[in-house]
């Protein structure tokens, strides 16, 4: 045993099993003999680098790289830059690329997985161990972390990349102790960085960049690459995994698209060989939704947004889901975690692949169980139905957007699964879309008709009313089919309401006018002799024009106008039509559908009365206004057709 020499000094002997302080003897079961380096300030060897292998395939991002250069250009003090964005958008890849190309300007360059406080501490401890490897086996992790922090606070010129930070509060203590150096943070958190870091929002790749990324992995392929990248929303993670999968499976982009359309759950959950299964597209956002589990409405809203158009979603659509504070908080948290984007115009947007995942059932994912996905779809329909109740007073662009959201909803669902409410809202959307695009209105209307027939029967009033719109949309493109729809719709009225019911009598007038109109088009298409005076074709034309006003006037003023026309009092009919148009413009607004419709009826009445020049002048002015409001398709096609080929009026017309 060794003696202690000095007041309360300790002497170590042999295996240091005993410590003698001069006052008493202490037995020590375990002791650590620290090397001299542990008592001296930490030292970092030059050229110390630790970066992940994420810098291989890299495209685009010139603007973002330049922004990082500018952010770190200042020469004094600590600089903290946070790159935020949706999971899978390439934040870590950008950070790794920038750091790898700037190693000559920083020493050391060290990458830390900072998703949790524990991971951050482990990463700092690893830095200290890399600086002085001899300490790795003798100091606990906490002591190593402290040595790294002390070194960082006392030195300059270093770059620390903190990857995938979940909460700004997790890194705040570290940032507060640093006085010099550079921090580059990647995070899904879009908010909470005020006073902590400068921020840089990362968006998806452009389509040409996404194509370059795909072809850089799947070399030599071209056909279908652009379509696939567009379908994947140019999300880098999805493009990379699709390209790698195509290489491994020996298939092309179009085959992958077919798989994605037919088996979305399996494709979105698939990963290339050797990849981390947590990085599968279908799973990459689950960790974010886990963090939002304490706000259940956030998950509900995301599953609702999954069914609408990805862009231009009014916040007001979500109002019925909860109280204003509840809805606002749920949206705020989704925005904060980069799951959706909020815009200054009051609309929201969501990436199309986030939508695809959110509406794809997975019983192993608590956020995407089958009943939750179906509930999201039905809620999306219900919210659109509520918004549609007050749609007539909305501006035309809002009506078009509303119909577009319904169009997006059904494009992602099997028609056989449409509920009765879905079919009813679809019928309303078809009527609205008719003002803007006949082709899109027809697709909506046909699907609505099938759904109404399945749930309400072939002769339900809603389906019969929709029949007139379908016939209107088809009459110039497929007159035979339109004729069949008109006859079936009229027969349905007679079966459902009887031959003498007012609705049946109105239907009979509609049918007569539309059948004559279609006969005219068939005659003009099939019988060029009509231009040379073919009597049968001309008689069809005359009769169709005589019945035409009956299609467009249904209210009290309309009945008076019709009576005047039937009696040959065309001047009185025109005055009544003018008064009706003025009243509707004053009551509904000059650009409302009802006001435009009344003016279109006036054009037809003036023309039927034999005043072709006056009718053309009215139609020209109305066409210009309609195009300014509704665009060149849909409703305005009727006016354009009238001006390019005005109907012939028989001399014997009243």
Name some characteristics of this structure:
alpha/beta, disordered C terminus, disordered N terminus, six-stranded parallel sheet, Rossmann fold, 27 helices, three-stranded antiparallel sheet, elongated, 654 residues
Notes on the structure:
The structure is a single chain. The protein is α/β, with parallel strands linked by helices. Among the domains are: 49-201, Rossmann fold (3-Layer(aba) Sandwich); 207-279, no CATH class; 458-533, no CATH class; 552-644, no CATH class. Helix content is 54%, strand content 7%. It has helices at residues 62-71, 91-100, 117-131, 141-154, 168-177, 207-217, 225-231, 236-249, 253-262, 264-269, 286-291, 296-305, 324-336, 352-358, 370-388, 396-411, 420-433, 438-456, 461-474, 479-497, 502-526, 535-547, 556-566, 570-588, 593-608, 612-630, 636-644, and strands at 11-12, 18-20, 25-27, 49-50, 78-84, 109-113, 159-165, 181-187, 198-201, 313-314, 341-342, 347-349. The strands form 3 sheets. A 6-stranded parallel sheet has the order 4-6-7-8-5-9, with helices on both faces. Strands 1-2-3 form a 3-stranded antiparallel sheet, with no helix packed on it. It is elongated. Mean pLDDT is 83; it is low at 1-6, 8-16, 18-22, 24-28, 526-532, 541-555 and 649-654.
In short:
The protein has 654 residues and is of the alpha/beta class. The chain is built from 27 helices and 12 strands.
């Amino acid at each position: 045993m060794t003696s202690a020499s000095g007041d309360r000094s300790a002497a170590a002997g042999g295996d240091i099993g005993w410590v003698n302080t001069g006052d008493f003897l202490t037995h020590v079961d375990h002791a650590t003999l620290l090397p001299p380096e542990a008592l001296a300030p930490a030292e970092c060897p030059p050229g110390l680098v630790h970066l992940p292998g994420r810098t291989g395939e890299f495209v685009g991002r010139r603007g973002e790289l330049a922004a990082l250069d500018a952010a770190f250009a200042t020469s004094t003090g600590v600089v903290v830059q946070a790159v935020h964005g949706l999971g899978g958008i390439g934040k870590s890849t950008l950070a790794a690329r920038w750091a790898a190309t700037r190693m000559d300007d920083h020493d050391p360059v060290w990458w830390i997985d900072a998703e949790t406080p524990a991971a951050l501490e482990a990463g700092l401890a690893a830095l200290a161990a890399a600086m002085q490897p001899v300490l790795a086996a003798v100091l606990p992790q906490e002591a190593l972390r402290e040595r790294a922090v002390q070194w960082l606070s006392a030195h300059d010129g270093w770059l620390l990349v903190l990857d995938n930070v979940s909460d700004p509060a997790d890194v705040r203590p570290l940032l507060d102790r640093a006085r010099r150096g550079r921090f580059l943070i990647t995070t899904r958190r879009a908010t909470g960085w005020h006073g902590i870091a400068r921020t840089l929002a990362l968006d998806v790749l452009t389509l040409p960049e996404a194509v370059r990324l795909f072809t850089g992995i799947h070399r030599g392929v071209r056909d279908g690459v652009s379509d696939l990248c567009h379908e994947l929303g140019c999300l880098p993670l999805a493009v990379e995994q699709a390209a790698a999968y195509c290489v491994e499976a020996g298939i092309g982009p179009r085959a992958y698209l077919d798989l994605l359309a037919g088996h979305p759950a399996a494709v979105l959950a698939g990963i290339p060989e050797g990849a981390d299964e947590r990085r599968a597209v279908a799973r990459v956002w689950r960790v974010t939704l886990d963090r939002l589990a304490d706000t259940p409405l956030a998950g509900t809203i995301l599953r609702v947004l999954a069914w609408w158009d990805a862009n231009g979603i009014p916040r007001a659509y979500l109002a019925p889901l909860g109280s204003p504070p509840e809805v606002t908080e749920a949206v705020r948290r989704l925005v904060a975690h980069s799951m959706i984007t909020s815009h200054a115009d009051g609309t929201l947007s969501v990436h199309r692949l986030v939508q695809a995942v959110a509406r794809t059932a997975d019983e192993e994912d608590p956020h995407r169980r089958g009943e939750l996905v179906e509930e999201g779809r039905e809620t999306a329909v219900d919210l659109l139905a509520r918004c549609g109740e007050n749609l007539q007073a909305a501006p035309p662009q809002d009506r078009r957007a509303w119909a577009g959201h319904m169009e997006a909803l059904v494009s992602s669902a099997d028609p056989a699964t449409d509920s009765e409410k879905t079919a009813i809202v679809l019928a309303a959307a078809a009527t609205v879309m008719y003002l803007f695009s006949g082709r899109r209105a027809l697709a909506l209307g046909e699907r609505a008709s099938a759904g109404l027939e399945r749930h309400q029967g072939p002769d339900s009033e809603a389906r019969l009313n929709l029949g007139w719109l379908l016939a209107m949309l088809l009459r110039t493109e497929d007159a035979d089919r339109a004729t069949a729809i008109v006859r079936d719709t009229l027969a349905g009225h007679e079966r459902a309401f009887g031959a003498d019911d007012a609705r049946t009598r109105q239907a009979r007038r509609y049918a007569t006018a539309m059948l004559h109109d279609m006969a005219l088009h068939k005659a003009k298409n099939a019988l060029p002799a009509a231009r040379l005076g073919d009597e049968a074709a001309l008689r069809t034309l005359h009769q169709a024009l005589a019945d035409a006003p009956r299609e467009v006037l249904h209210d009290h003023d309309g009945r008076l106008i019709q009576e005047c026309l039937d009696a040959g009092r065309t001047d009185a009919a025109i005055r009544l039509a003018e008064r009706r148009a003025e009243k509707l413009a004053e009551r509904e607004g000059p650009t409302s559908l009802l006001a435009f419709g009344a003016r279109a009826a006036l054009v037809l009445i003036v023309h039927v009365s034999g005043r072709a020049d006056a009718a053309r002048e009215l139609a020209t002015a109305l066409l210009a206004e309609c195009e300014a409001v509704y665009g060149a398709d849909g409703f305005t096609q009727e006016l354009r057709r009238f001006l390019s080929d005005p109907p012939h009026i028989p001399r014997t017309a009243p």
